[in-house]
Amino acid sequence: QPIGTYKQTDTARGGMEIEVVRTVMQDGVEVRSTPFRTEFQAWPNIFVKHPQTPLPAGGKLGTS
């Protein structure tokens, strides 16, 4: 990024819980059903900047 500019690289997203179910069928009959669950944490808008670009008033660097 050029000095003095910011670029948004990701958009804030709310957290969510996802479930996918794998169903095994044999001759048209369900043999097994296995749920797979995962949870995604919410994240903020993400911006990149040149290291020499000052932060805006009240701005702070995120932590990983």
Helices and strands in order:
Blueprint: E1 6-10, E2 16-26, E3 29-40, E4 46-49
Antiparallel strand pairs: 1-4, 2-3
Strand content: over 45%
Number of strands: 4
General form: rod-shaped
Regions with little confidence, pLDDT below 50 for 5+ residues: none
Rg for CA atoms: 22 Å
- Could you state the order of secondary-structure elements as H and E? EEEE
Helix content: under 10%
Main beta sheet, described? 2 strands, antiparallel
In DSSP terms, counting alpha (H) and pi (I) runs of 4 or more, how many helices? 0
User: Order of strands side by side in the largest beta sheet?
Assistant: 1-4
Gap from first CA to last CA: 21 Å
User: What oligomeric state best describes the polypeptide chains here?
Assistant: single chain
- What is the average of the pLDDT values? 90
Structural class: mainly beta
Primary descriptors:
64 residues, mainly beta, two-stranded antiparallel sheet, rod-shaped
Q: Can you describe what's shown?
A:
With 64 residues, the chain is an all-beta fold. It has a domain at 6-49. It has no helices and four strands. It has strands spanning 6-10, 16-26, 29-40, 46-49. The strands form two sheets. It has a two-stranded antiparallel ribbon. A two-stranded antiparallel ribbon has the order 2-3. Strand 2 (16-26) and strand 3 form a beta hairpin. The two termini are 21 Å apart. The model has no long low-confidence stretch (mean pLDDT 90).
